[in-house]
Amino acid sequence: MRLSQSFFYTLRETPSDAEIKSHQLLLRAGFIRKLGSGSYAYLPLMQRVIHKIEAIVRAELERIQAQECLLPQLHPEDLWQESGRLAAYQSEGILFHLQDRHKRGQVLAPTHEEAVTLAVKDVLKSHRQYPAHLFQIQTKFRDEIRPRFGLMRAREFIMADSYSFHTSAESLEDTYQQVGTVYQRIFERLGLNVVAVEADSGAMGGQKSREFMVLTGAGEDEVLYTQDGLYAANAEKADSLFSPPIKSRFTEHHKHHTPNTPTIASLCAFMDCDPTQVVKNVLYQAIFACEVLVPVLVSIRGDQEVNSTKLSNVLSEMFSGLGGLQSLEVPTAEQLQEWTTGELPLGYIAPDLPDSLIAFREGVHGQFARITDFTVSELENFVTGANEPDHHVYGANWGGNFSLGYLADVRLAKVGDRARHDPEQLLQSARGVEVGHIFQLGDRYADRLGLRYQDAQGHAQIPLMGCYGLGITRLAQAIAEQSHDENGIVWTLASAPYQVILTVANMADPAQAETGLTLYQEFRQAGLEVMLDDRDERAGVKFKDADLIGIPYRVVVGKGVQQSLVELVIRQTGEKQQVAIEDVQLVLLGLCVDRKPSSGVL
Amino acid sequence: MRLSQSFFYTLRETPSDAEIKSHQLLLRAGFIRKLGSGSYAYLPLMQRVIHKIEAIVRAELERIQAQECLLPQLHPEDLWQESGRLAAYQSEGILFHLQDRHKRGQVLAPTHEEAVTLAVKDVLKSHRQYPAHLFQIQTKFRDEIRPRFGLMRAREFIMADSYSFHTSAESLEDTYQQVGTVYQRIFERLGLNVVAVEADSGAMGGQKSREFMVLTGAGEDEVLYTQDGLYAANAEKADSLFSPPIKSRFTEHHKHHTPNTPTIASLCAFMDCDPTQVVKNVLYQAIFACEVLVPVLVSIRGDQEVNSTKLSNVLSEMFSGLGGLQSLEVPTAEQLQEWTTGELPLGYIAPDLPDSLIAFREGVHGQFARITDFTVSELENFVTGANEPDHHVYGANWGGNFSLGYLADVRLAKVGDRARHDPEQLLQSARGVEVGHIFQLGDRYADRLGLRYQDAQGHAQIPLMGCYGLGITRLAQAIAEQSHDENGIVWTLASAPYQVILTVANMADPAQAETGLTLYQEFRQAGLEVMLDDRDERAGVKFKDADLIGIPYRVVVGKGVQQSLVELVIRQTGEKQQVAIEDVQLVLLGLCVDRKPSSGVL
Fold it and tell me: How many CA atoms lie within 13 A of A266 on its CB side?
């Protein structure tokens, strides 16, 4: 690429609407341009970075026998209806939806479980054709509530998504682990630091999932991890040890007048007890796809908080017949009026708050979904509300005074908690950006969409599926976020749009101009990826641009050509060195050795 | 690729809804699967064909300094409003349209003139940055009225589209010609026969355009061409010589009673005259974007027909202020009642049909757009209607009796017409599929979207643009349409998903199985693109599959391994030949030499 003959520009000023460094730098260095909310043009330098990442991803996925395909982006709405995901995605509002000329609903795909299942249905029909693994690299769409941080949360983004099909849990587990390993290799090849964390499966469904996070202050997710490197989880999913409760001194069951004690703190002060001795009862309202409101009452220990993601998962499981959880919230006073028969004893609720308080009304489930968190399921002689304002009971026990609800872990793990694998290890917190996510889906999609195979005995069986996704454009920006300095981006060698930039300091000097062009042609012939900055600009402008766009190696053709010397500058370290013109190609070839592992024979 | 471990299938039966051979074969051979109307999954074999075509297109476009980028697929509707194309595309109904969560209109792009102009606006600002040429390879969307023929007319399809920016008409012409040449090289490398034809610019606008057509009976376009190869045009655009008129014997102007002569044939029989002596006046109604109906009256020679594409272009030009032509039709009796004041003398209309016949009504233009075709503009002493039922005039002349309207070529060229470049050559007709189209757009998009540059004198100027498109998925299917036989597809070497298929006749024979695997590994290491058919199937099934999927070279590892022989079968000719195992790799390397021209140094 000769800059004098190419589409190339950089900006002096930092665009005002870019909040994080990588976003600012990609805009300033001419890699991307914003065309609309969360919508970017990938300009030629960016497209080269994307192609480099894609090539690595493609090669690594092919190593484990995944085969590339390409699925449609526009899906008939019916397909999403059939899989049962339409309502959930629509309630989140992230699904772009349209009608075609025949008024048939279509969605712009954010993910392809349905499409790939349909694509292999009726053709992947013998157990001998399993396992199978298909991948694609493609633009996905999400109607984000708040697109931000450039390519980190955009409405269009490139993903490498893959889908595997299996006749046994072992085979699925195998591929799931292989993909995890391959993803780590991809991150290593790109020079990215990524941590694998336990994750919630969200709208994808399935039992097991793992996220890959780039740790950065600009991340939107919270990661809880231990110093020993043995535990890391998305805060939505994280688990930890909870402290043992302090033994309660209330050995007899009594109701007590406790005026003005609606909070745990005020109650403990009044009763002179510890929060670990209190069962707190928290109200929620859950709304499901078939427009049913379920009142929810969670009993959890006084020193703990509810994790709404965990609670959502529990409710989705309990009420799977109601077609998907649409919303879950702590009801406001106004909302309460809509489904209660009278004033609730807020702040003084007991685990047995009577169902008779729920209004008998269409669309309202007539019973509380009572959920008991593990933090209180073995508590003895505890303190809790008395279902009457300004009153609590103490010395209460399960079985005797209250019935246990649906037992579950709905507790929020927090910084400072002790880790389950080693109580000496305390949870620490960091911000992260998800760049990959792998899932064991089980038979959900195959079951609902009718994918079946014949086993060796000729019986029809439902296959198991896994799905795996890597954010290509997000990876590209994550590299710039992890690797930059005050002068610009510092691309890793594997991700850089070009390996070398040849900067001719003064184009008006024929010796420099000629040497520059000669080296450019020689470098290209030797297989180096090289840009030639042969613009009529001052040397200072060219050096600034080279630093800004972040090419790993800069060769400056300046006055030194008189002594047959050029200057080699390492972008990452700023190191400079005079090199004889006749040696520079070999030096560069040595530095740019392709470090990718050799690919295995399939 | 080892078939025993890969996603692979073929179908015995021809799918019932596939009308043309290439569509049937791609479905049967497991290259594509239909997921919805005009919506296809490209399965692994297809994806390899697509990648091969894309790689050739990429290399050839880079030869002429085009740089790859990627633009968003979802565009704000405002952008299309600004360029003035929204109405025209919406009236055709081919634009997928949706609203995002903020109720902002978005369109799914069928083409990217607006987006690319916006992407370079404010950064391509000095004349020194011109010319510039950006391309992308991407899925496009069209809400087709009738998706058909598989990938030939799908709702999603892959295009390689490029856009160039210039400071002079010469520079635009240069790039336009370069792209034309490069397209021809691409077709040649792919082994496709393609003819370049003059074309109509349609909704794209601009002055000059050329289409590239694959000639095939399954084509949806009509091409008119001459045997000498010097002329070819889309029938929508084609021009030809019209025969000189026979001199009229009606030297005096008279009105005549001509009962029951509403057609040219009946009139000529009654008057004993030739159709070339008659001026026929044809009514149309044109509806424009701002909901105005314009009555149109076209005067054309009695032996000629009106070309509605040419007429649409003329009207769009005449009424460019009315925001784009939405529809053009010959009005029905009912439609006529809506905008006329009384009965029209249909079949007896004269060029001066009075405007007073048009109803004075909102949304109806009060004057006929009178268009005079070149076939009648110099006619003398002609016969035409008298604006009175059962009456004509003869011996009429322009100037004296009638005024000429807007002079234009709106005549339909037909098979058998004499060619303009050589009257000895007669136009012939063929069906074709458009696989490429290049346009000189002029300044339309830059002007409307505010793209400006500073010239050497510091003055703001509007650049000129070109745009160029190649249908990647259409090319892929066109190859299968041009190159197949009764047994299946016959891919050209440059487009084949694999160059070689190694077929082990009997996997139960250890010598065959081992030789097959050894050759597979050796071929791969030598850089051959090879599939190994190591399935537990009968040899006959494997041979049929190999023919169906159309791999250029088949190496059969059968009983001959005892004599160290394998069989080499050429797919295209069916030729078979015994080759020593030790020689077969070299023979194949010779056959698969990459024939692509070496790429020049940029």
Answer: 12
Distance separating alpha carbons of residues A493 and A409, to the nearest angstrom:
45
Measured between beta carbons, which residues in chain B are less than 8 angstroms from residue A536?
128
Closest by CA to B316, choosing from B79, B85, B82, B77, is B85
Per-residue pLDDT at A566: 98
- Residues A411 and A299 sit within 8 Å (Cβ to Cβ): no
- Decide if A69 and B41 are in contact by the 8 Å CB cutoff: yes
Q: State the smallest CA–CA distance between residue B281 and chain A in angstroms.
A: 36
What is the nearest CA distance from B251 to chain A, expressed in angstroms?
57
CA distance B534 to chain A (A): 13
Summarised one tens digit per residue, pLDDT across range A89-116 is: 887 789 999 999 999 999 999 999 999 9
CATH number assigned to the domain comprising residue B176: 3.30.930.10
Whether the bond between B131 and the residue before it is cis, its omega within 30 degrees of 0, is yes
Does B102 reside within a domain? no
Q: What angle do CA A442, A444, A448 make, to 5 degrees?
A: 150
Range of the domain at A522: 498-591
Q: B39: which chain A residues are within 8 Å (Cβ-Cβ)?
A: 72, 74-76
**For the domain that residue B541 is a member of, what is the CATH number?**
3.40.50.800
Q: Which of B408, B438, B472 is the last residue of a domain?
A: B408
Q: How many domains does chain B have?
A: 3
Cα–Cα dist B13/A140, whole Å: 34
The pLDDT of residue A602 is: 31
**Pseudo-torsion of CA A172, A173, A177, A182, nearest 10°?**
-10
Torsion sign across C-alpha atoms B348, B354, B360, B361:
positive
- Asked if B445 and B555 sit in the same domain, the reply is no
Read off φ and ψ for residue B524, nearest 5 degrees: -60, -45
Judgement on whether residues B367 and B459 belong to the same structural domain of the protein: no
- Count of residues making up chain B: 602
Query: Would you call B571 helix, strand, or coil by DSSP?
Result: coil
Distance separating alpha carbons of residues B535 and B504, to the nearest angstrom: 8
B404 with B530, same domain? no
Query: Rounded CA gap, A385 and A393, in Å?
Result: 6
More confident residue, A295 or B15: A295
Compute CA distances A369 → A284, A317, A400, whole Å. Answer: 9, 12, 20
Quick check: ipTM above 0.90? no
Walk along chain B (602 residues) in steps of 10 and give the mean pLDDT of each run. Answer: 95 88 97 96 98 98 97 96 87 90 95 97 95 98 93 96 98 97 96 87 71 88 88 88 91 93 95 95 92 95 94 90 86 93 92 94 93 95 96 94 94 92 92 94 95 97 97 97 96 97 97 97 96 97 98 97 97 96 96 56 32
3-class state of residue B213 by DSSP = strand
Q: Do A123 and B96 touch (CB under 8 A)?
A: no
Q: Which two tokens stand for residue A102?
A: 């025949």
Query: Which residue in A has a C-alpha nearest to residue B44's C-alpha?
Result: A69
Q: Order of strands across the sheet with A391-396? A: A254-257, A391-396, A382-385
pLDDT at B290: 81
Contact A74 B9 (CB under 8 A): no
* DSSP secondary structure letters along A513-553: HHHHHHHHHHHHHTT--EEEE--SS-HHHHHHHHHHHT-SE
From residue A290, give the alpha-carbon distance in Å to each of A84, A322, A327, A363.
12, 6, 12, 9
Helix (H) / strand (E) element for A139: namely: strand A132-141
Q: Which residue of B has its CA nearest to A601?
A: B521
B445 and B389 share one domain: no
Is residue B29 within 8 A of residue B489, CB to CB? The reply is yes
- Taking contacts as CB-CB distances below 8 angstroms, the residues of chain B near A74 are 36, 39, 96, 108, 141, 155-156
